[in-house]
Design goal:
The chain has a single domain, classed as Bit1 (3-Layer(aba) Sandwich), CATH 3.40.1490.10. By secondary structure, the protein is of the alpha+beta class. It is built from 4 helices and 4 strands, in the order βααβαββα.
């Protein structure tokens, strides 16, 4: 079995308990990655530069509640991994302030806390 090359990645944790249209989900993801990139530029510029010089992989994972989404944020923060949580403005599908997604990284998967490593892919 060949070993997967070690590369920096960004992740997007999506709340699956919300009834989001595909358009809304894509927009929330865009906000998350945009603001995460800005935050990483300030917090971990070297890692962001390396990430952008690679293939810039992004992984979408699922969480089943607001509580799990908050845990993603908490685990990233404790591990000193840049993150950004999107809180919806409430103009279309959701109540104002609803937390929808958390983007985190860039980081190496093998350096993630166990909880973040176990998140299931979004499908």
């Amino acid at each position: 079995m060949t070993e997967e090359p070690r590369e920096l990645k960004m992740w997007l944790a999506v709340r699956c308990d919300l009834d989001l249209s595909r358009g809304k989900l894509v927009t929330q993801a865009g906000h998350a990655y945009q603001w995460l990139t800005i935050r990483a530029m300030q917090e971990t510029p070297g890692a962001l530069r390396d990430y952008l010089n690679m293939a810039s992989p992004k992984i979408a994972v699922r969480v089943d509640s607001e509580r799990e989404l908050q845990r993603v944020q908490s685990e990233a923060e404790k591990a000193d991994i840049s993150f950004y949580t999107v809180h919806d403005a409430g103009r279309t599908e959701l109540e104002p302030g609803t937390a929808t997604v958390v983007a985190f990284g860039p980081a190496y998967r093998d350096e993630l806390p166990p909880f973040l490593k176990r998140l299931q892919l979004l499908n």
